[in-house]
Design a protein that fits this description.
It catalyses: RX + glutathione = an S-substituted glutathione + a halide anion + H(+). The structure is a single chain. The protein is built from ten helices and four strands; from the N terminus they run βαβαββαααααααα. With 225 residues, the protein is an alpha+beta fold. The protein has a four-stranded mixed beta sheet with strand order 2-1-3-4, with helices on one face. Helix 1 links the parallel strand 1 and strand 2.
């Protein structure tokens, strides 16, 4: 039974959303300590500033502190293997190796271009005196377009990225993908233009865990003033 799990951050953050989804999948009780780093008056707890000055996401379990969202998800799956959804990190070494390949692909190749699109398509329109950089948007859009073409081929053979079960490999893509899909028709078409990617995104984005995260984001919207 999990005890003393704390997440510091705001649900609107993609890193925090990733961790929250994992916690819901594992059916673990936790405390969300909302920190709003966009507000100039906000002061981060000292233990967060020492480890992660950006304060995007910090996780505490007893005296254990982790700041990388993917590392937090791995920790939750290995620390609580029998809680909630048991297939999230695979049930054997081969499955876990496949999941790790996709987690690395997301972190190393998908995250950067998708994060820029999230900023320019979803956040920039709501910021004062900030206009999307069309050249940067087009560049990152093309890179994501090419990546999703490869994913579509993989998903034509598997239900999910690492096989026929939903895993961390899929979960990790949810936060950025959600913002892009819901930002505009332009962003949505990146995921709906391909049959298998569209089917995959529809399945992962309608899971109860992600619905709970969306509910939290609506209840605790981020401040970009």
């Amino acid at each position: 039974m999990a005890a003393g799990l704390q997440v510091f951050g705001q649900p609107a953050s993609t890193d925090v959303a990733r961790v929250l989804t994992c916690l819901f999948e594992k059916n673990l009780e936790f405390e969300l300590v909302r920190t709003d780093t966009f507000k100039k008056s906000h002061k981060l707890p000292e233990f967060i500033k020492l480890r992660d000055p950006t304060g995007q996401v910090t996780f505490k379990h007893g005296d254990k502190t982790i700041v990388d969202s993917r590392a937090i998800c791995r920790y939750l799956c290995t620390q609580f293997p029998d809680d909630g959804y048991k297939k999230l990190y695979g049930t054997g070494s081969l499955e876990r190796a496949s999941i790790e390949q996709w987690l690395q692909a997301e972190a190393q190749s998908f995250d950067a271009p998708s994060s820029e699109l999230v900023f320019h398509l979803a956040f920039a329109p709501h910021l004062k005196d900030v206009r999307p950089d069309e050249a940067r948007v087009a560049e990152k859009e093309k890179k994501l377009h090419n990546m999703l073409a490869v994913y579509d081929d993989i998903l034509s053979k598997n239900e999910y990225l690492a096989g026929d079960d939903f895993t961390l490999a899929d979960l990790s893509y949810l936060p950025n993908s959600h913002y892009i899909v819901n930002s505009s028709d332009r962003g949505r078409k990146l995921f709906t233009a391909r049959k298998h990617v569209a089917r995959w995104y529809d399945k992962i984005s309608t899971r109860d865990s992600w619905r709970q995260v969306i509910k939290m984001q609506r209840e605790h919207p981020g401040s970009f003033e």
